[in-house]
Amino acid sequence: MAPRLALAIPHGRSVAVWMRNLRVWRRYAVPSLIGNFGEPLLYLLGLGYGLGRFVSGMADMPYLAYLASGVLCATAMNTASYEGLYAAYTRMTRQDTYGAMLATPLQVADVVAGEVAWCATKALISGVTLFVVAGALGAIPLAGLPLAALPVVLLMGLTFGAMAVLVTTLAPSYDFFLYYFTAFITPMFLFSGVFYPVDTLPGWLQAAVVALPLFHGVELVRPLFSGELPDPLAVHLAVPAIYLIGAFQLATVCLRRRLLV
To answer: Could you tell me the sign of the dihedral formed by the alpha carbons of 196, 201, 206, 212, in that order?
Structure first.
């Protein structure tokens, strides 16, 4: 039992997993990038301009900038989640890619780390795309402090990628992911301050929301879009990091039990 309880630490070999996923993605990179432009453009145009006509500003920001800061984190969450769920589940089951990887010197922690890193990469690609779209629409400047939001996008991608891979290691089928989205991802998307301030919610719901990683991602990005530093910075970084580390460790244990026991 001791090895199973030991802290899972990936090695540099996990880069091979990331490279494998990159080579596969390059085959359909163009339609993927086009799709990345489409969704954020619809959010920012449909809600930012449409609803923004009735909401002059929010939290001392133009509503389009307010919305862009929230949607940036939500896009990273959704992109990393879909990659870590549906694509990773296909690699784990139908393609048996993980089984083939574990027949090499790669360890389970390397496979999980490579998958999580790839989820974060996809999230960063989507985030950069939305950042460019928001800048083109005049919501934010494309230079200066707002650029510091991109490392936050990477953190969101790592966090939600690790959580998604954990769910994948437990899933009996693709249908299982609907429970994860309904019970966890969608409520975060609606209540974590993406569209309106969290302090408008009832007190008991606010207490639940501040324990969720998306809320802290939004709280990191929104001040940066206003040219200010987040406060308290340490707390907003620590909560997603705790989810990331915990989900990574559990995903490693669960994947080992699923494939090797």
So the answer is: negative
